[in-house]
Amino acid sequence: MKVLGLRLNAKKSVLFPLLRTTYLGVVWDLTTMQARLSPARIESILTAVVRVRKGRSLTVKQFQQLLGLMAAVSNVIPFGLLYMRPLQWWLRTKRFSPRETRFTHQ
């Protein structure tokens, strides 16, 4: 690796082959050739959904954070991008400023 000019971060590296590994919140299982969300990633999305659903005064930024989490896993979830559309269209019709606008969620 050093000959190629690359640095190796030993804490983040796995130097032997694995049949199952987690990378960027996705569990890659090479025995079944499947990719699944890690429990931590599922928990972070569910927490964001609950925060948005229960929130009375939310910022557009909070909605955008949820959309970002959903976009990050859209390749793992079948038709994942379609789940984002209703929220995207709703936000687009409101024309809120991401930093300043707070609104009441009904």
Q: What do you see in this structure?
A:
The protein is α+β, with helices and mostly antiparallel strands and 106 residues long. The chain has a domain at 39-104. Helix content is 37%, strand content 17%. The strands form 2 sheets. The protein has a 3-stranded antiparallel beta sheet with strand order 1-2-3. It has a two-stranded antiparallel ribbon with strand order 4-5. Strand 2 (26-29) and strand 3 (34-37) form a beta hairpin. Helix 1 runs antiparallel to helix 2 (60-72). InterPro entries: DNA/RNA_pol_sf, Hepadnavirus_pol/RT.
Gyration radius from CA atoms, angstroms: 19 Å
The outline comes out as: elongated
Q: Unreliable segments (pLDDT under 50, ≥5 consecutive)?
A: none
Binned strand content: 15-25%
Figure out the total of helices: 3
Give the neighbour order of strands across the main sheet. 1-2-3
Strand count, sense and barrel status of the largest sheet are:
3 strands, antiparallel
Count the beta strands.
5
What is the H/E order? Answer: EEEHEHHE
| SS content category | alpha+beta
Distance between the terminal alpha carbons, to the nearest Å?
56 Å
Mean pLDDT reading? 85
InterPro entries: DNA/RNA_pol_sf, Hepadnavirus_pol/RT
Protein name: Reverse transcriptase
Organism: Cirrhinus mrigala
